[in-house]
Amino acid sequence: MHAARVLCIPNFSEGRDAATIRAIADAAASAGVQIHHLSWDADHHRMVLAFSGAPAQVRRALVRAGAVAVERIDLTRHRGAHPRIGAVDVAPFVPLAGLTRDEAVAWSHAVARSFARRLRVPVYLYEHSAREGRIRDLPTLRKGEFEGWVGRRLMGERAPDFGPKRLHPTAGATIMGVRDPLIAYNCNLHPPDAEIARQIARQIRRERETNSALRGVRALGLWLPTRGVAQVSLNLTQTDQTDLFRVTEAVRQIAAQHGASIAATELVGVLLAEDAARALQSALGLQSIDPQQIVG
Which pTM was predicted? Predict the structure, then answer.
């Protein structure tokens, strides 16, 4: 794993307590990783952290941050707009350099085993890390959320890959694994109508198999009461098939069908240079663009 580099974008179920948010971020930073992004939202009651480093650094950072989250987050008292099953709800890994996918998957299994053993939290593997015949997509693994599974014995397809056979009583479970690059992106609507947001999200889910601009796009319609915002929350899971500009224009067209428009957009987490270049190429009608032409 010489010169290997991994990006990790863990999502924590805390978006209101500044001290806990800072403690989680500081714990990750203490492992020597590079912090790329930190954001949180009170209505989602969720925090997103993005960091990268050598595999050993990333492993230490996730376990250290996870330990703080497990100690300080109590899901029995947690209510937010975003679905979740754990205090450390999901921990995706994206290999950036020096690792084949198979090597990254094997490494992720070791991280998941260590995380579950040290924190006594059940861990589910997802996406490329999921074992043959197991559930691999995030929405299905998270279905039922913390409240639907706490106190129940986890058996059959709900048995975790590592750790206890019951949810941690306050920290739930963690979903972890290697995935392709993903873009988390929100469209805030005018007028701020929650039902319109839900209708738009449903239409996106219906059309994503037939509309190439929406290929691989997951969508939820949410109401954020603290901000007074109706939001279409999007995950772009096939960034090689579509791009941010095309998705935004497709959402804009669907919103117009429902008498709404996009008031503002939000990027959550990080955007890889390749994906930024792809969106810029679409927006400007460029014949081509090399990501190396984008200089930070």
Answer: 0.90
**Residue whose pair of structure tokens reads 């500081």 in the numeric block:** 26
**128 counts as catalytic:** no
Q: Are residues 227 and 106 in the same domain?
A: no
Q: Say how far apart CA 79 and CA 293 lie, in whole Å.
A: 43
Q: Are 172 and 211 contained in the same domain?
A: no
Number of domains in the chain: 2
Query: Which residue among 36, 82, 128, 190 is the active-site one?
Result: 82
pLDDT in tens, 139-198: 999 999 999 999 999 999 999 999 999 999 999 999 999 999 999 999 999 999 999 999
Question: Residue 31's domain is classified under what CATH number?
Answer: 3.30.990.10
Same-domain pairing of 94 and 203: no
